[in-house]
Amino acid sequence: MLEIGSDADPQHWHEQTDAANGNRLNALRAAVLGANDGIVSTAGIVMGVAGATSERTTILIAGVAGLVAGAMSMGTGEYVSVSTQRDSEKSILRLEAEELEAMPETEQRELARMYEEKGLDPALASAVAAQLTAHDALAAHADIEFGIDPDDLTNPWHAAWASMISFTLGALLPLLCVVLAPADARIAVTVIAVVAALAITGLVSARLSISPRLRAVLRNVGGGLLAMGVTYLIGSLVGIGID
After folding, report:
1. Which parts of the chain fold into alpha helices (H)?
2. Residue 68, C-beta contacts closer than 8 angstroms, at least 6 positions apart
3. Any domain includes 9
4. How much is the pTM?
């Protein structure tokens, strides 16, 4: 007979699979958002500089500087944020372990009560709590109380590298377009490429969040066009003032 909470339990396996899929979806969603930030911020920078000057070298320097600064900022921000979350998870697990050691019976009754609140009848809830406590009490409490898997804590380095790489890949698109395209077509080429890329990231983010696709695409593209338009206008005005 399968034991509740054992690795052979289909329900337990299903929950582990759902958690793993959720982690992968969150990572993918973060990567899409990072790429989107790279596209919009770098497009804004190069379009602003292109509005002020037609010098390819100047535009390239500004774009590369924006790419590096943005990627480092994204990576550092994610590392700090996720490190704080990981520290919080460790503190929660430490406190829970102390409570389990100090009053195991009380904690088991608390676990049973939580399963009752989820809809199990008292007898079944007590049986589930007893078997989960015998199997891994800390994991059982961490999961139902805080949604934490002690064996799969958030990794700040993974988040930092994912953000840096996705931002860099997104930023390369407008940078390469504005630098490699002919001078008389660089604005049009960059705008078209950025709009297409933002439409794709909007579709992907909508699919991941199971939300209306058209609205996500329009919101994404509209924000990018606004950013490019404003920075290009400011760059043009600054360029006129310098001339």
Report:
1. 10-52, 56-102, 104-117, 122-141, 156-180, 186-209, 213-242
2. none
3. no
4. 0.74
